[in-house]
Amino acid sequence: MLLEQLTRAIAAAPADKFWWGIAGASLLMLGAGRIAYATTARKRLIEDTPTSRIRSAPQGFVELAGVAGVFAGEPIIAPLTQQPCCWYRYRVEERSSNNADRNEWRTLESGTSDDIFKLDDGDGVCGIDPEGAEVTPSSKRVWYGNERMPWREPPAQAGLFGWVGGKRYRYSEERIEAGSELLALGHLVTFGGAAPGVASVDVAQILREWKSDRASLLARFDRNNDGQIDMEEWEEARRAAQAEAAQTGQSAALAPSVDLLSKPKASGRPFILSAVTEEKLRRKQTLMAFVSLVIAFCCGVGLAFSLLSRLR
After folding, report:
1. pLDDT per residue as tens digits for the range 252-290
2. Is the dihedral of CA 67, 213, 245, 223 positive or negative?
3. 25 φψ region: left (φ > 0), alpha (ψ -120 to 50), beta (else)
4. Torsions phi, psi for 176 (to 5 deg)
5. Are 264 and 187 in contact, with CB atoms under 8 Å apart?
6. Contact 93, 47 (CB under 8 A)
7. What is the pairing mode between strands 87-95 and 169-176?
8. Which residue in 91, 224, 238, 252 has a CA-CA distance of 20 to 30 Å to 32?
9. What is the pTM of this model?
């Protein structure tokens, strides 16, 4: 009975609404199918890429695992909680005053850290340039308040009581904490050998400081003016940082190289920073692929049913 009513409703629907609906469902099916395929391929890539030790890791796409940390010098501070960390992402939202049920939120401010931090696997230290990475953080907090910007860590139950109390602002912050176990997949480049008397950690620290002022970094090293720092330009920046470290005498140690993990240049290769285990990451990818596949399947069935009902 219900199926017959639905068939009649589809057959009687105005042509413009029907075909717009068909177009929308088709796009959703194709998008969900693409996500399912890409996620499955990514899961397989994670499974097939062995974990390398930093000291002996090959150049190119690698998987590394170790403990996240920060280089000496200027700390990385999460804007909302003012907590030191290795990486952060935050958002400040305001409850919409134009919505009758007051459940819509408008983003006022957001940001993501792109400061270089380090990964230590006990065998070596590698710099991590997180720009463009897909990050699974070690901590995530959502809470509410009546001020545009909070200046402290929220209480444990802030999210629940903030929602019940009808607070005006919603805050969310994700962090990779120093000392967190970190799984990283990306493009590894070893920038030459360090000069005598210059340690790789010193060079990486200088690069991190330069990267925090992106405009100056581009003005100094972006030779082809494409708004990006490519591998050759990074090598030039490394040599300049190496010379500065040697000149200022920051270290008397000798290190053979400076390792940096960043977003792969080749399309289709992911850049993943995950503060959860590889097993949990694989389960997450499996669930995402399954849900996307179900959505694509349901859209396909709905499209076939609608076309048959309309055209028969």
Report:
1. 444 456 788 988 876 678 899 998 877 777 777 788 888
2. positive
3. alpha
4. -100, 115
5. yes
6. no
7. antiparallel
8. 91
9. 0.67
